[in-house]
Request: fold
Amino acid sequence: MAARIGTAIRAAVLGAGVLLVAAGAAHAEDAGTIKLGAAVSLTGKYSSNGVYTRNGYDLAVKRINERGGVKVGDKTYKLEVVYYDDESTPARGAQLAERLIQQDGVKYLLGPYSSGLTEAMAPVTEKYGVPMVEANGAAISLFQKGYKYLFAVLSTTDQYLKSAVQLAAARAADPSKLKVALAFENDPFSQDVRAGVTDDAKKFGMKIVVDDKLPPELNDMSVTLTKVKLLKPDILIVSGHEKGAATAIRQIADQRVNVPLLATTHCDSAQIAEKYGKIAEYTLCAAQWAPSLAYSDALFGKASDYAALYEKTYKEPAPYQAAESSAAVQVFAEAFTRAGSLDPKAVRDALSKTDMQSFYGPIRFDETGKNVAKPTILYQVQDGKYVVVYPEKWAEAKLRAPTPNWDQR
Reply:
């Protein structure tokens, strides 16, 4: 992981150096070129993921151009991306969206990294009637504001751990007898995740016996774990980004808390298997995509083919942030062809009718612009590796459950 971060930081520095060149080129409308604009985080707290986002865009653009470009009516176009560094700051992202549209004349935008940056840019693209296809803003609030020009290829936050509830229900003779414990960070992402979990738990008639907010510093969940010991829930669900996942693994082991199923967000990016070894075994982790999934398309081939191409190109494993970013470019390319026009309104209307299969998964937008066709998946830590166990259709291995008690592990 250290090597990956180092590579990302170096790429961010190199990328920052070519921004002005790309921006200058954007002013000349080259014949036969469709220009996409993107403000991504090449510096600041999101810089690593911002580089993955840009890598995903670049890989798809290169692949499409190598395959002949995009057919629009009776003409064929190559794709080009005009980049700026949003510095991981929402206000800067909004400024750059305005610049791309007003000064650079870009008519189609690719999204930034994170829900916060996407929320800052969406009002700008909506104001000017510029379609934006984004891949890294999952907050459900983005799709509750009536935007008509915003489309997202990834599953929204409310979907992240619904699958854990569904998996628990599928294993139970009577799901209504299951007890659920919740521990969530008090931030928009985790509270969106919680909303999805509680909705599904109620549908199955499950009883929520613990519903706690993690402390802001995310370094102690002993109060919640004391309740778990006392109330003995069938599943404990945690969302607190990387730090919350790490805290959960450590303290559940330290306090010898027995729970049949543990599910969390961000456990792969928190490297719980690599850092905590055997105590991380059996943990379920929500994810957007995995190279092992049986998705495929004509451009990249199978999900595993995409992962191999990414690793060959960037000398590191393919993160899901890159995969979903590549899918966003594919969505634009497919919409251009179906629209048969480069008029932004026509492209927007074509985007709204998207119904396609990609290496990243199925993509179909509802009236709010969110992808309602692609499920999230669940990894489980098994023998020190993250393997897909749910949905069963794409599972690499069978679920290992229930988790043995600590005195049997």
Observations:
- Confidence is low (pLDDT under 50) at residues 1-29.
- The CA atoms of residues 292 and 304 lie 6 Å apart.
